[in-house]
Amino acid sequence: MNSIAFVLLSILTLAAALATATLQKLMHATLSFAVTLVGVAALFFLLGAEFVGLVLVFVYIGAVAVLIVFTILLTRRDVGKDRGANWGGAFLAVAVFGGLTWAILETQSVAIVAPHLRTLTVKRIGEALMTSYVWPLQCVGVLLTAALIGALVLVMEEKR
Amino acid sequence: MTPTLQIFLVVSAALFSTGLLAALSRRHAIFILIGIEMMLAAANLNFIAFWRFSPQPQPPTGVMIAIFSIAIAAAEAAVGLALVIAVYRHYRTTNVDHLDQLKG
Predict the structure, then answer these.
(1) What's the mean pLDDT in B44-49?
(2) Minimal CA separation from A20 to chain B, in Å
(3) pTM for the full model?
(4) Which residues contact B92 (CB under 8 A, 6 or more apart)?
(5) Do the Cβ atoms of A12 and A46 come closer than 8 Å?
(6) Fold of A1-78
(7) A interface mutation test: which of B21, B30, B88, B99 has the most A CBs within 10 A?
């Protein structure tokens, strides 16, 4: 695993995430959210899970980010400023990060290097999806259908 | 030096905390949703990292969980954004500070 690529991707991802959390202009923050997801997908590629990285790009950047942009444009009337920094939230986030980092660095069993990677082909993923995971797959299909119908019902204009 | 599992977990924890910061400090409903999506992405990163650093079983469990979690996050985002639009139609605002009618 290439450590230079890892460092660059981590810096890109975390900088974009911080920009998403702090930028005042809504559209800029949304675009940096997309950059964050590109960084996460690149980290997936680095970890050898190319298929999941591609799914992340398709689903999040192709669908969710576009949906968020449309929602911002549709609810544009009150693009007021966020009120100033919320120090309680910032303090809590830093405390959570500190606690998690402490726990991770204290745990010796996660200080390991990656074993040799057996390449994960899409064929194997497809076989697993169609054999051992066929029941969760059907459930996710039902869930997606129900969620999308529910979303449509929520935004439908009420007939008088 | 090749990156160890620890470093991936620290990056993922940082991403999670940034998502938490966005969810807690933003007042715009859509950005609270974005913060939650960021925390979900951090969890997915953890799943993939643990899958990569473990002796890889057959079938690839970590990858499967990440795929299902992405699908469920997409459903959640669709319903959440629909809720934001419905609330906006009703109250003409998306600022969660102004949506205080249920306050006791």
Answers:
(1) 92
(2) 7
(3) 0.89
(4) A77, A78
(5) no
(6) Four Helix Bundle (Hemerythrin (Met), subunit A) (1.20.120)
(7) B21
Q: Is A85 exposed, middle or buried (0-12, 13-18, 19+ CB in 10 A)?
A: exposed
From chain B, pick out residues whose CB is under 8 angstroms from the CB of A62: none
Instruction: For residue B34, give the H/E element and its range.
Output: helix B29-53
- Are the C-beta atoms of residues A132 and B59 closer than 8 Å to each other? yes
Which two three-digit tokens encode residue A82? 């966020």
Q: What is the mean pLDDT of chain A?
A: 86
Write the pLDDT tens digit of every residue in A30-59.
Answer: 999 999 999 999 999 988 888 999 999 999
Q: Could you say which of B2, B30, B48 has the minimum Cβ distance to residue A3?
A: B2
A37, A74, A150 ranked by CB distance to B85: nearest: A74
**β-bridge mates for residue B95, sequence order:** B28
CA A71/CA A79 separation, integer angstroms: 12
- Nearest by CB to residue A105, choosing from B6, B27, B41, is B6
Chain B residue numbers with beta carbons less than 8 Å from the beta carbon of A13 are 11, 15
**What is the complex's ipTM, to 2 decimals?**
0.89
Domain B5-91 belongs to what topology? Helix Hairpins (1.10.287)
CB contact under 8 A, B15 and A155: no
Per-residue b/e over A91-123, b at no fewer than 16 CB within 10 Å? ebbeeebeebbeebeeeeebeeebeeeeebeee
